[in-house]
Write a structure and sequence with these properties.
By secondary structure, this protein is mainly β. It is built from one helix and nine strands, in the order E-E-E-E-E-E-E-H-E-E.
């Protein structure tokens, strides 16, 4: 099994920073470690607490916050909501829903994630 990780520039209302990001097609939602939100964005409370399952059988993590962030892949501006996961082993994870939304392709042969710039034409010209 291959793993694709790459540094991505994340931007929020408080600033920008590069986070080493894992692309995980097995994770439905995108996540971020709360330690990396300082000077990036203030999280908001979820309406209902979510219990997220972990790799350990019967072990769950309580998730109470989310954050909306912009991120850049190959200078292409993308955005999504990230669940704030205490104790997350990665700085950030791009999950399957985000990959589907932006049509991100994973190329395991070359260990890269690819985004088509045409899907991100949100800006008015």
């Amino acid at each position: 099994m291959s793993i694709i990780k790459q540094p991505l520039l994340f931007a929020g209302s408080l600033g920008e920073k590069h986070l080493y990001t894992l692309y995980d097609s097995g994770a439905n939602l995108s996540c971020i470690n709360p330690e990396y939100l300082e000077n990036l964005e203030n999280p908001t409370q979820l309406g209902r607490i979510r219990m997220m399952g972990t790799a350990a059988e019967g072990h769950y993590i309580e998730v109470t916050q989310r954050v909306s962030l912009d991120f850049y892949m190959d200078d292409v501006l993308l955005s999504d909501e990230f669940l704030v996961i205490p104790g997350l082993s990665e700085e950030a994870i791009i999950g399957a829903a985000t990959m589907q939304k932006w049509r991100i392709k994973l190329d395991f042969e070359h260990d890269v994630a690819i985004v088509d710039p045409k899907v991100a034409k949100m800006q008015l010209v």
